[in-house]
Amino acid sequence: MPDRHLISALNLASMRGVQVDIVLPAHSNLPFVHWAMMAQLWQVLEFDCRVWLTPPPFDHSKLMVVDGTWSLIGSANWDPRSLRLNFEFNVECYNGHLAQALEKEVDDRIAHARQITLQDVDSRSLPVRLRDGVFRLFTPYL
After folding, report:
1. What backbone phi and psi angles, to 5 degrees, belong to 94?
2. pTM of the model
3. In this structure, are residues 65 and 102 in contact, taking their beta carbons and an 8 Å threshold?
4. What number of other Cβ atoms are within 10 A of residue 107's Cβ?
5. What whole-number distance in Å separates Cα of residue 100 and Cα of residue 59?
6. pLDDT at 1
7. Were both Cys, which of 4, 20, 60, 89 would link to 49 (CB 3.0–4.6 Å)?
8. Residue ranges of the alpha helices (H) in the chain?
9. 23: CB partners within 8 A, 6+ apart
10. Which parts of the chain sit beneath pLDDT 50?
11. Is the dihedral of CA 1, 137, 47, 58 positive or negative?
12. Per-residue CA distances from 59 to 23, 26, 44, 52, 129 (Å)
């Protein structure tokens, strides 16, 4: 559950012409986290970030690859709780060979994923949107 600063950074990158792909599991191991996430997706979809939902099995990896040369790999979720309170660890790698291998892995996951659009998010039923919105209120604790 990224905070507004990370969401803004992703949107600004997309507005500059950077292709931003966000790959998420289609089904979370914690349903209420998935519901809260769904309530936030419009924030990046409005700015042409692409969101992909991958089929099972559940993948809990955290990975970012930039320009085929820089990677961030670790255990921390990209939310304030994980980054500030939990004892988690990320590694920043500046290695083209590693980044390209990881980028291939991401591309393979995207090839089997379903892209979710702003229309998909907006067309959720009212009860589902209300449920998702209520759980979004708890994001600081998730």
Report:
1. -110, 85
2. 0.84
3. yes
4. 12
5. 20
6. 65
7. 20
8. 4-15, 31-40, 42-45, 80, 96-111, 118-122, 126-136
9. 52, 54, 106, 109, 110, 113
10. none
11. positive
12. 10, 10, 21, 13, 25
